[in-house]
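Structure in, sequence out. Go:
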C-alpha cells in the first residue's frame, strides 16, 4: 500500500514546469516516481582524497587540514592520499586549540561519492549543544501546525520520532517545497528521502516542512526563525545541527537563507536551485557555510549556466569563494561518456568544516534522478544518499 501511495503521489504533474526559475509565476514541474529511497549505487564510501570510481581516473591528493579554534583539544594536520581514498592522518596536538581536520577529499567521484574528509576533526563532529526544550516534556506534537509570523498565520508540518527522548538532542531538517507545491508533498516524499535515510541508519531526526503562501520571499526568512525557534524551545534540538534543504524554488529559498543565516543553520543542500527570481539580501553576507547542490545539465528551468552570472554554476562559485576553497578555472560537471549518469565533485582547499560539494547529472529539472534509467525514481535516486552523507559528516 505504501509503495502504491507513493507511486500515485509521484505521478502528479503540475503545470507551468518552466516557470519557477525562468519567470516570476507558475509552478514547479513533475516530481519523483513512487517507492521509498533505496541505497543508491554500489561504490564503497571512502575517506580522504581520491577518486572512488576506478574508471574515472586518479583523484587528486587530499590536502592537510589546519586546526581551528574550539572549546578544547589540540591541533592536528592530516594528509589525504590519491586514488586509494585513505583516511587523513596526523597526530593530535595538545592545548586549547580546535581539532584539525584530516585531508580534504580530492577531486570528483562518480556514483556515490567516496571522497570526504579523512578525519572527523575540524569542527565536523563537535559535541551536541542542547536547546532550551531539552529535559522537558515536549510542548508540540507531530502533524500539521500553524504559527504567527510577520503578522500572518503560517502553516507547517513537523515530524517527531515516535520514540522521542527529551534528553536526546536531535538533528533538525527544514525542507522547503517548490513553487506551487505543498508541505504535504515534502512530507510524502519523506523530506526528500532524508527521513528514509535516517530510519535506515537508526539515527532519528526531527523534520519540518514549511508551507509558502504563494512563493518564497523575504518574509520566509522570519518564518524560518520563528518555526525553528519554536522547535528549539519545545523539543530537544542540537542547535549546532540544524540543516536546510529544498527543491527548485525550495532550493532557491535554501540558497537565499544561506546568504544571511550562516550562523543559524549548519549546512544547506539545494536541489535544482537558481540564483535569480528569489529574494536575496543586499549585500549578501560572505560568511562560510557548508554547501551541496544538484543540477541536471539539461535543466532549462533552473539551468547550470544561464549566462550573465545567472544559474547554479554561480551559486557553486560563490560558495567556493565564501568557504575559502580553491576556486577552479572550470568546474567539473557531468558530460557524455562519464561512467555514470551523475558526478559529485568535492571542491578542494576549503576552510576546515566548510566543504562544498557540487553534483551534476544527465537530466532535467529533477529532484529524484537515478543512474540506471531516465527520469525520476524515489526508490532508486542517489540524491538522498548523497545529501544524508553530506549532512551527517557534521
Amino acid at each position: 500500500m505504501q509503495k502504491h501511495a507513493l507511486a500515485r503521489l509521484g505521478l502528479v504533474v503540475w503545470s507551468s514546469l518552466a516557470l519557477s526559475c525562468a519567470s516570476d509565476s507558475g509552478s514547479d514541474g513533475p516530481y519523483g516516481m513512487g517507492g521509498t529511497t533505496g541505497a543508491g549505487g554500489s561504490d564503497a564510501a571512502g575517506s580522504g582524497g581520491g577518486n572512488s570510481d576506478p574508471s574515472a581516473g586518479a583523484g587528486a591528493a587530499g590536502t592537510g587540514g589546519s586546526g581551528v579554534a574550539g572549546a578544547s583539544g589540540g591541533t592536528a594536520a592530516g594528509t589525504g592520499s590519491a586514488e586509494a581514498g585513505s583516511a587523513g592522518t596526523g597526530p593530535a596536538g595538545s592545548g586549547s586549540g580546535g581539532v584539525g581536520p584530516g585531508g580534504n577529499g580530492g577531486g570528483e567521484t562518480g556514483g556515490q561519492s567516496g571522497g570526504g574528509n579523512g578525519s572527523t576533526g575540524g569542527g565536523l563532529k563537535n559535541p551536541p549543544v542542547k536547546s532550551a526544550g531539552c529535559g522537558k516534556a515536549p510542548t508540540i506534537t507531530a502533524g500539521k501546525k500553524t504559527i504567527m509570523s510577520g503578522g500572518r498565520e503560517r502553516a507547517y508540518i513537523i515530524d517527531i520520532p515516535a520514540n522521542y527522548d527529551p534528553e536526546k538532542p536531535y538533528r533538525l531538517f527544514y525542507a522547503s517545497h517548490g513553487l506551487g507545491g505543498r508541505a504535504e508533498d515534502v512530507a510524502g516524499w519523506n523530506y526528500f528521502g532524508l527521513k528514509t535515510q535516517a530510519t535506515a541508519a537508526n539515527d532519528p531526526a526531527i523534520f519540518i516542512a514549511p508551507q509558502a503562501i504563494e512563493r518564497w520571499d523575504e518574509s520566509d526568512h522570519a518564518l524560518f526563525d520563528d518555526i525553528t525557534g519554536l522547535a528549539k524551545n519545545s523539543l530537544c534540538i542540537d542547535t549546532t545541527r540544524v540543516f536546510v534543504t529544498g527543491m527548485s524554488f525550495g532550493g532557491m529559498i535554501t540558497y537565499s537563507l544561506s546568504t544571511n543565516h550562516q550562523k543559524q543553520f549548519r549546512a544547506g543542500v539545494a536541489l535544482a536551485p537558481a540564483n535569480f527570481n528569489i529574494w536575496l539580501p543586499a549585500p549578501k553576507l560572505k560568511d562560510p557555510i557548508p554547501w551541496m547542490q544538484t543540477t541536471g545539465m539539461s535543466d532549462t528551468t533552473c539551468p547550470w549556466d544561464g549566462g550573465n552570472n545567472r544559474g547554479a554554476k554561480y551559486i557553486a562559485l560563490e560558495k567556493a569563494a565564501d568557504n575559502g576553497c580553491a576556486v577552479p578555472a572550470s568546474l567539473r560537471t557531468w558530460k557524455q561518456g562519464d561512467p555514470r549518469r551523475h558526478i559529485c565533485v568535492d571542491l578542494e582547499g576549503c576552510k576546515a568544516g566548510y566543504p562544498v560539494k557540487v553534483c551534476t547529472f544527465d537530466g532535467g529539472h529533477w529532484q529524484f534522478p537515478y543512474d540506471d534509467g531516465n527520469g525520476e525514481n524515489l526508490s532508486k535516486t542517489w540524491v538522498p544518499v548523497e545529501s544524508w552523507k553530506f549532512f551527517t559528516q557534521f
